[in-house]
Design brief:
Number of domains: 2
CATH topology of the largest domain: Quinone Oxidoreductase, Chain A, domain 1
Radius of gyration: 21 Å
Strand content: 25-35%
Length: 366
């Protein structure tokens, strides 16, 4: 299992938690500017990795070197890790980690900071955080850029907080950051009962939008309605295009489907609308007539989160901390955890996600 690539040695001094917490490890020592510091961080950790791309069964428990925080990073002892669509794509061999990133899966975690790079001043050892990672979350420990960490929102359990960063960073940056949001506008969200969708439904509602969302069945419809959706559209027997057109058209569309939904999204959009493509679960190669994009003055855009520069993610985190995180304490937002499984059962979590039978987020517990 290739789990040691990207596991950096510290670039400079690090601060280390010298007080044992819940776990007990055999103490080891490290040299920092000539000082020997007793620590409780083990040299190795448990993780989940794979040798060759494939189905969920390629995921296996492994023992890996414990990472050290690099420049501007903190080391987080993982309480829980979120399971996301890009994890499945990487496992299949189509979404390689950025240069220098951990090859392990896992793009979001919650946990406790146990060590920091000496240059980090905004976090302290012992702080509980949730964080966006470039990989490495499916493990006992992960090194994270300090600017990509957030406090656990008020009223949110530390385990549930693991399911927040990836979806909130994604939805905020694609839909709201730097955008003019029409008051009372129509927001079409595809896949409203999944991780991204349930976040988009809640955020859209909290920001004053009328949220229309596609779902697979009546149970999912009730789920998204409880989250605040204006209209749940059961795509097995309803067509979202006439529904949105009857409502005046979509001001914003958030799509993870692609395929024939691309042309249908264009039809469902009102003039000057915006279509945001963040995944292509039904395929990215389609033949469509783009004339309506010109005639309606539509904006069609897309992005991936993982490849964004660190400074961009830090700016997103700052927005979330200032604007979005307080909404949890007010009760306007809430985490939606479908199920938490043991880390060793990551393959089962992937099977469940691929079945699309979950509602909300799947988490892994080391």
């Amino acid at each position: 299992m290739q789990c040691d690539a990207g596991m950096r040695k510290p670039d400079g001094p690090i601060r280390i938690d010298a007080t044992p917490r819940v776990d007990t490890f055999t103490p080891s020592v490290s040299m920092t500017h000539g000082r020997t510091m007793t620590q409780t961080i083990p040299d190795t950790m448990q993780a989940v990795a794979f040798d060759e791309p494939g189905g969920p069964d390629v995921l296996k428990p492994v023992t890996c070197p414990t990472p050290s925080p690099g420049a501007g990073e903190v080391l987080v002892k993982v309480t829980a890790a979120g399971v996301n669509g890009p994890d499945l794509v990487q496992r299949r061999g189509h979404y390689p980690p950025p240069k220098g990133a951990s090859p392990l899966l896992g793009l979001e975690v919650s946990g406790t900071i146990v060590a920091t790079d000496s240059a980090v001043t905004d976090w302290q050892v012992g702080d509980q955080v949730c964080a966006l990672t470039n990989g490495g979350g499916y493990a006992d420990y992960v090194a994270v850029n300090s600017g990509h960490c957030l406090e656990i929102p008020g009223g949110v359990d530390v385990v549930d907080a693991a399911g927040l960063p990836e979806t909130y960073f994604t939805v905020w940056s694609n839909i709201f950051q730097g955008q003019t949001i029409p008051e009372g506008g129509n927001f079409l969200v595809h896949g409203g009962s999944g991780g991204i969708g349930s976040t988009a439904v809640q955020l859209g509602t909290a920001m004053g939008l009328n949220v229309y969302t596609t779902v697979p069945d009546d149970e999912a419809a009730a789920f998204v309605t409880d989250l605040g959706a204006t209209r749940a559209i059961n795509y097995t027997d309803e067509d979202f295009v006439p529904i949105l057109r009857d409502a005046g058209g979509a001001d914003i569309v958030l799509d993870i489907i692609g395929g024939d939904y691309i042309a249908r999204n264009i039809k469902a959009s009102r003039h000057d609308g915006r279509i945001v493509q963040i995944a292509f679960n039904a395929g990215s190669k389609v033949q469509i007539d783009l004339m309506p994009v010109m005639l309606k003055r539509l904006t069609f855009t897309g992005s991936t989160l993982r490849s964004r520069p660190d400074a961009s993610k830090t700016a997103i985190a700052a927005d979330l901390a200032r604007i979005v995180w307080p909404l949890f304490a007010k009760g306007d937002l809430r985490p939606v955890t479908h199920r938490a499984l043991a880390l060793k059962d990551a393959s089962e979590a992937h099977r469940l996600m691929e079945s699309a039978e979950h509602m909300g987020k799947l988490l892994l517990l080391p």
